[in-house]
C-alpha cells in the first residue's frame, strides 16, 4: 500500500530530527562542562580598582634621563627577539611601551636576531626611543639544532604533532626559538653583565601608564619573576615534559624549594583532561611573551641542570615544548612562590588575550576582558589557579 507523500515527508523529518538529537547527545565532548576562566561564584580581581603595588617605588626624575651622569637605572634591559620582517609590529609595541613607561625611565632596548639586523630596522627602532638601542646576533651554537637531534625522528614527530593540531609543529625555527627562549638567551655575551629584563614581542600592546621603575620594584621587593597572564597549554605539545621533570626531580630532590608552587603545577581539579594528557602537569603557565625577570634564576645551578636535562631529552624538537611551560615549571619547583609577582597594574595584550585592570591610568582595553576572540577562549584562563595556590601579589 502506498504511503501518502505528506506522511513520508513527515516521517523523514522525524528521522532526521532524531539523528540530530542523538548527535547532540553523543558527539565528542558533549557532556564535558566547559570551565569558565573565573568561576561564577568568584570575582575577577581585575574588576576591583587597581593601583600601584605597595611599598617604596622609584619615580621618574633627572636620574633617569637617557644621558644622566649618575643614572638611577639598575642593571636591566628591555629585550626582544625579533626578525627584520617584523619591524612594523616591533615599532608598534615599542611605541606603546615607550608611551606608557619607558620614556620616563629610558632603559636600553636590546634586540636579538638569528641574522644581522637591517639598517632600516636599526634606524627605525632607534627613532622611537630616546634610550640606548643595541642590536645583537645570536651565536650559531645557541641557535642551531643540537647535534643529538635526529632529523628523521623530528619529521616523524611533526606528523604526530600535526595530527593533534599543534600550531607551528613543522616550523623548525619555532622549535629553535622556544629552545633559545628557554635556556639560551641569558647566555648571550651581550647580557653577561645584565641582571633584569623585560621581554617584549612585536605587535603586543600596553594600555596603562606605569609611573614607577618596575626593575627597581623587582629588586627592592625581592622578586624573581613578574607576569601578567596565566594560561593553560595544549597538552599534546608537551606530553613528556612533566615525566622528564619528575625524572629530574628524583635525581635532584634537594632542588625542590620548601615554599614551591608544586600544588599549582600538579592541580587536576580544574581541567582534569589537561592534567591527564600532560601526564600529571596542569599545563597552567605564565604566558612568557611578557616576562619581567631576574636572570640570576635562569643562571642558577638548579635551572642550568634542569634545562640541560630537558635539552638532552629532545622535547624541544620531538614535541613542541614552549619556553612558557619550561620557565613556569622551573619557577614553580625551584623558586619561592612569594618571589613571583602578578603585575596586575600593567595593561597588556598579545593576541588574543589581555590583562586589563580597573584603573584610570588605562586606556584602550576593556576592564577585566580576558579575550576579544571566541568565547571558548575564556576557558584557557588559569589565573584562578595561581590565586588559589599562590597569591595575588
Ligand atoms: N629573529 C627571529 N625571531 C623569531 C623567530 N621565530 C620567532 N621569533 C620571535 O620570537 C618571538 C615569539 O615568536 P612568535 O612567532 O610570536 O610566537 P608565538 O607568540 O607563540 O606565536 P603567535 O601567537 O603567532 O604570536 C617573537 O618575538 C618573534 O619575533 C626566528 O626564526 N628568528
Ligand atoms: Mg607572539
UniProtKB/TrEMBL annotation:
Query: One of this protein's GO BP terms?
Result: protein N-linked glycosylation
Spell out the family assignment given in the record's similarity comment.
Belongs to the glycosyltransferase 15 family.
The protein's name? Glycolipid 2-alpha-mannosyltransferase
| N-terminal signal peptide | none
Membrane spanning residue stretches: 7-26
A Gene Ontology cellular-component term: Golgi apparatus
Task: State the UniProt keywords alphabetically.
Answer: Glycosyltransferase, Membrane, Transferase, Transmembrane, Transmembrane helix
Positions annotated as active site in the UniProt record? 291 (nucleophile)
What is the organism of origin for this protein? Coniella lustricola
Name a GO molecular-function annotation: alpha-1,2-mannosyltransferase activity
Q: Keyword Transport: yes or no?
A: no
Question: Record's Pfam families?
Answer: Glyco_transf_15
Instruction: List the PANTHER family.
Output: ALPHA-1,2 MANNOSYLTRANSFERASE KTR1, MANNOSYLTRANSFERASE KTR4-RELATED
